[in-house]
Amino acid sequence: MLSHDTATSIDDSQTKTALVTGANSGMGLATTVDLLKKDFYVIMLCRNEQRGKEALQTAKQQSKRDHVELMLCDLGSLESIRGFAEQFHKRFSKLDVLINNAGVVTTKRTTTADGFESMLGINHLGHFLLTNLLLEKIKSSEQGRIVTVSSGAHKAGKIHFDDPHLEKNFSVIKGYAQSKLANILFTRQLDDLLKNTSVKANCVHPGAVSTSLGINRDTGFGKTIHSVLRPFFQTPAQGADTAVYLATFPDLTESGEYFYKRKIAERSELSQDKTLAENLWAWSEREIARVNKDLLKDLDELKES
Ligand SMILES: NC(=O)c1ccc[n+]([C@@H]2O[C@H](COP(=O)([O-])OP(=O)(O)OC[C@H]3O[C@@H](n4cnc5c(N)ncnc54)[C@H](OP(=O)(O)O)[C@@H]3O)[C@@H](O)[C@H]2O)c1
């Protein structure tokens, strides 16, 4: 079980606070550095303490800023997300920017601590719960922003309600595309729920970016193919540009949209289906309640705290 930072509450009345998931690598680290340079107080949400600590030092060196901290959370564990949210609520009065960036690609079927297929569990369900648990804090910001990193791969995706965790029929593209379609449908429904607030929720396709995505963290499998493709891909900073733009551009009017290179981009028909978005939201709530019925009750308690 990961531990959480237990530092005391901070005075965030004069600063803007941003939370970046998967902040130790690739676009998450680049996003962190960019937000630090724009004078945000940045919380780097990472699942691994060692990788997180190294990235924290890198972020400080690259940005020449030190208003950044590491908080541990495994988005593949509902309990870890709940613990993280509890710490956050104790320490911060608001959240100005949430970047749902963390993601995995697994070539074999793996499951999260709660038994969810990993890509759906981490890329979608983990962020679904995290965002919901932090929503009241984001609404407390004058100009709250939620940016979820999706992918053009969503175009190959369907939501497989008959076999969502791909127990009967797994393939990497089926799982990854489903999770990235879920990111867009989640954003669409979130925007509906936030209609009467000042919060803007959008998602992005970053393009093909040279990162550690798909590289096995234990075995290093996948590194060779990445190094061969690297010259053809964007840098992590280039890939992070649209997410940072959506998080910080003061006059942003759009919400519920899908962006690529700072512009609204073409997306699949399924990703625009309102009924599908509503059904996925209801399914996600049920799925979380199936594992731990108290987690959604926590939402109400957090709202009152
Ligand atoms: N690279 C591309 O070409 C591309 C294209 C389209 C979309 N995307 C999307 O871009 C986002 C960022 O990926 P990236 O390309 O920058 O890949 P990356 O370098 O592999 O970074 C992924 C980050 O997510 C973290 N993460 C994974 N599982 C987690 C968990 N259970 N809890 C908390 N954090 C977790 C990783 O932590 P560890 O290092 O500890 O594993 C890492 O920090 C992803 O959502 C991906 O789907 C990427």
Would you write up a description of this structure?
This protein is α/β, with parallel strands linked by helices. 44% of the residues lie in helices and 11% in strands. The chain contains 9 helices and 8 strands. Helix 4 (118-139) packs parallel to helix 5 and helix 8 crosses helix 9 (293-304). It starts with 16 loop residues before the first strand and ends with a helix. Bound molecules: NADP nicotinamide-adenine-dinucleotide phosphate. NADP nicotinamide-adenine-dinucleotide phosphate is lined by residues 21-22, 24-28, 47-48, 51, 74-76, 101-104, 122, 149, 151, 206, 208-209, 211-213, 217. NADP nicotinamide-adenine-dinucleotide phosphate binds next to helix 1.
Bound molecules: NADP nicotinamide-adenine-dinucleotide phosphate
Q: What series of H and E elements makes up the topology?
A: EHEHEHEHEHEHHEEHH
Order of strands across the widest beta sheet? 3-2-1-4-5-6-7-8
β-strand amount: 5-15%
Give me the count of strands. Answer: 8
Q: Which CATH architecture would you pick?
A: 3-Layer(aba) Sandwich
Number of domains: 1
| Protein structure class | alpha/beta
CATH-defined topology: Rossmann fold
CATH superfamily: NAD(P)-binding Rossmann-like Domain
The low-pLDDT segments are 1-5
Mean pLDDT score, rounded? 92
What would you call the shape? globular
Q: How far apart, in Å, are the first and last alpha carbons?
A: 25 Å
Q: What's the multimeric state?
A: single chain
Q: Specify the biggest β-sheet.
A: 8 strands, mixed
Radius of gyration: 18 Å
Specify the helix fraction band: 40-55%
Structure annotation, total helices: 9
